[in-house]
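Worked Example 4.2. Read the sequence first, then its structure tokens.
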Amino acid sequence: MPLIADRVYDNGLTVLDTEANALYICNAEPATYTAATTTNALGAAAGGAFTGIGAPAAGSPNGRQVTVNAITAGSVTGTGTASHYAIVDTVISRLLAAGALSTTQLVTSGNTFTLGSFTIRIPAAV
């Protein structure tokens, strides 16, 4: 069984903690920055609406994880069903992470959206 030190996991997760500055809700899982911010985007939380991501910590049940802080006032810019999130670095135009929302949300342009906090985990090597 390989051993991978926490430092290795943490350096990968630290990118989320230090570079992410916006979270988008999307109608499908984006594979690129453009898809996350334009093609599939239904809304975004940036600036004060995106309060960031915590530092790497022990994951459950194993590995390492970061916690994405709750979103309380994201701006909806499109109408549709939000099924995925995308975390991006808008300074370098880079998609950092994307995944499914725990539940889908019907959203309407001009409204706001909320998301509870959630974790992104890298499981331990087995």
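Now turn to a second chain, presented in exactly the same format:
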Amino acid sequence: MLLFRTVPSDSRQASRPDLVFDGLAGAILDGRYAPGDRLPSQRALAAEFGVNMASLRAAIDRLAQLRLVEVRHGEPMRVTDWRQAGGVELLARAAGTDPTLLIATFEARAILLREAARLAAARATGAQRDELQQLAAAFGAATTREDRQQIDLAFMAALIDAAGNLVFTLILNSIRESYLAQRDTYAGLVAAADALAPAYRAAADAVRNGDGDAAATAIDDLCAIQVRGMLEGGAA
């Protein structure tokens, strides 16, 4: 039985490394390969995916950069324990395959955003405070789930930007990549629109007023509503 889907014959050559990477990364992240397992040889993988060696090696290089596999000259490729060796860049892929990690991701997101709100209340420029106010108002006026998701992303990005912490920005970027790739999975984040709208306003108002404690509390409340929506599987 094949562990991977082969690349369709009409796929563009330029896309083949991505497709191979997706197949191999998926097999590792969802447990078809366990830590320490030996991968098939590169020639065998190239044949199974129906790609040339250049495409296969490009995909393997990406896997190695993410520390999903270990490649040593003259030795078979082996799967690493990505939970021990991986970094935040794996969130975009791993959260979609592991429900436990998905919830943990949004728990961590809540903590990050809470502290970002404290910093934003102290550091935001006038323009940044205005932007948060405008986005909060836009969320309340949004009529579709897709619009609410887009505004949620914009609001949290603006909050992080106002906090002025580059590490926070990089972490949020990894979470956003997963969000954008799997919008339906994250529909529950904005399902309780009537409860969320005042929470966005409260957070924006607290940042505008320079009240870090109130901003942190508002974001805690907002994120708690979102996590409940995720757990309940809301899709509205």
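Notes for the reader: The chain has eleven helices and two strands. The radius of gyration is 21 Å.
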